[in-house]
């Protein structure tokens, strides 16, 4: 069986696989969008207002170890991935809610007009 047929059978048989693929696609899209449009502002916020970054900087100054710190980058990546996961979950939930409303409305309209 060719790969395309296997994928089609997988998507028709298991709806969760389709939802998972949609979630990961939206996750990467939202993460890239947040990083592209808000990355600099988030980095400035982390380096200016973050207590964790200030604590790390103070510790490095007391140890006389002023090597470049990876903490702002780690915080930025964690924040962007968390926002991407949240936004993709909300998007998938909204898509499912709209699909449910359309199915329910269609069933109600069909039931109303089929009794006449």
Walk me through the structure.
There is one protein chain. By secondary structure, the protein is mainly α. It has helices spanning 3-13, 15-49, 51-62, 71-114. Helix 1 (3-13) crosses helix 2 (15-49) and helix 2 (15-49) runs antiparallel to helix 4. The longest helix is centred in the C-terminal third of the chain and has 44 residues, at 71-114. The protein is elongated, with a radius of gyration of 23 Å. The N and C termini lie far apart (47 Å).
Throw out a few tags for this protein:
single chain; 116 residues; mainly alpha; 4 helices
Strand content: under 5%
**Could you state the order of secondary-structure elements as H and E?**
HHHH
User: What percentage of residues falls in helices of 4 or more residues?
Assistant: over 70%
Shape: elongated
User: Structural class given helices, strands, pairing?
Assistant: mainly alpha
Q: Which ranges are low-confidence, i.e. pLDDT below 50, for 5 or more consecutive residues? A: none
**Distance between the amino and carboxyl termini:** 47 Å
Number of strands: 0
What kind of sheet is the major sheet? none
Number of helices: 4
Question: Whole-number average pLDDT?
Answer: 81
Query: Compute the gyration radius: what is it?
Result: 23 Å
Short précis:
With 116 residues, the chain is mainly α.
What is the topological layout?
Layout: H1 3-13, H2 15-49, H3 51-62, H4 71-114
Helix pairs in contact: 1-2, 2-4
């Amino acid at each position: 069986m060719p790969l395309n047929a296997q994928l089609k059978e997988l998507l028709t048989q298991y709806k969760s696989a389709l939802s998972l693929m949609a979630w990961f696609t939206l996750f990467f899209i939202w993460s890239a969008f947040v990083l592209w449009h808000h990355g600099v502002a988030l980095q400035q916020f982390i380096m200016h207002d973050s207590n964790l970054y200030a604590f790390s900087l103070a510790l490095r100054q007391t140890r006389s170890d002023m090597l470049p710190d990876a903490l702002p980058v780690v915080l930025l990546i964690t924040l962007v991935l968390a926002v991407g996961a949240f936004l993709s979950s909300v998007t998938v939930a909204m898509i499912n809610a709209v699909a449910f409303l359309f199915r329910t409305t269609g069933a109600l309209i069909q039931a109303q007009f089929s009794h006449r």
